[in-house]
Amino acid sequence: MEREYINRCTLFFPTLKLSNFDEFLIFIEGFLGGAVMAKYFVQRVIYMIITLFLIASITFFLMKLMPGTPFNAQGKLSPEQIHIMNEKYGLNDPVPVQYAHYMLNLLKGDLGTSFQLDNRDVSTLIAERIGPSATLGIEALVFGTIVGILLGVLAALKQNTWLDYGSTLIAVIGKSIPSFVFAAVLQLWIGAKLQWLPVAYWNGFSYTILPSIALAMFPIAIAARFMRTEMIDVLSSDYIVLARAKGASAFEIAFKHGFRNALIPLITVMGPLAVGLMTGSLVIENIFSIPGIGNQFVQSITTNDYGVIMGTTLLFAIMLVVIILIVDLLYGVIDPRIRLSGGKK
User: Fold this and answer.
1) How far is 304 from 70, CA to CA, in rounded Å?
2) Domain boundaries, the chain
3) In whole angstroms, what is the distance from residue 238 CA to residue 249 CA?
4) Helix, strand or coil for residue 121?
5) Residue 272 phi, psi dihedral angles, 5° rounding
């Protein structure tokens, strides 16, 4: 019977070489596991598309509830001129007609044009502004996560010591004080008085350090708090006690056995936080005079620039759903038990 199963398998996979039944079982397990993960991935992509469609639809209709039109904010056009401009751009059409036109253009990859910024393509405006915001966000996320994890692990390993109290204090400060306060302090001392780094503007890597540190304070606090709590919980587990009984070193216990399990809740929190950091912080961008997407987004809301509002909102939504998908896939990498249980379901 075992040989018959192997023969049938090699019939469908001629290049496959199986010498015994154990190898056959390993192949089947891997094949089914890959199929389950592929099915899971396709389902998530479908959910992402549905989510983006709903977000685009809801944002469009909410945007239409805003008073006025993009041309009312200019203040230099007469009512007749505003009517002509609305007619030209289809803003006098019924809202369902406008919605249908926008969604059809969106399917073609056309985000429309900006009514306030010289009729430029929204995709071009976003591409020009997303770079600085994404750079700051990535730097702040990487720096904040690494520092926060180290502080959290040290606090858990040295519980009730000055390291633990210092880490907790940093976490409280980072979560309690707004980032723009850190930005002002960094500008005053590091930039103005010590003159180690540029105070503002955007012209190279050195100009990103101070705003990145200001943005990183909140991720540091989140990562340190979660890692401390989870590491303390993990280090008191039965399998950690068993590892100590077997003579495992403190390094092996902390990083080989406890670290991976403690990362799971942290990844859940840091995923959405990454989107917020990478899409820019309006206050930080204003303080450091950075040409990011956050400032542009707020200006588009105040001027009813429909195309920029929709394009920026969709960018945020796409980044969020992609980050959530990556987080879900990372669960299986960090803890195979999650992947196996998901496969059975």
Assistant:
1) 5
2) 2-64, 72-107, 122-344
3) 16
4) strand
5) -60, -30
- Tell the burial category of 35 from Cβ atoms under 10 Å away from its Cβ (0-12, 13-18, 19+): exposed
118-122 contacts at long range (C-beta below 8 A, 24 or more positions apart): 122/307, 122/308, 122/310, 122/311
The C-alpha angle with vertex 226 and arms to 225 and 232, in degrees rounded to 5, equals 95
Please list the residues that pair with 113 across neighbouring strands: 121
The string of pLDDT tens digits covering residues 23-71 is 544 544 454 455 556 677 777 788 888 888 898 889 888 888 877 777 7
Q: Could you report the per-residue pLDDT of 100-120, keeping only the tens digit for each?
A: 888 888 888 888 888 777 778
Q: Report pTM.
A: 0.70
Residue 288: which of 221, 209, 175 has the closest Cα? Answer: 209
Asked if 307 contacts 118 with a C-beta cutoff of 8 angstroms, the reply is no
Architecture of domain 122-344: Orthogonal Bundle (1.10)
Cβ-based neighbour number of residue 183 at 10 Å:
24
119-171: pLDDT as tens digits: 788 888 888 888 888 888 888 888 888 898 888 888 887 878 888 888 888 88
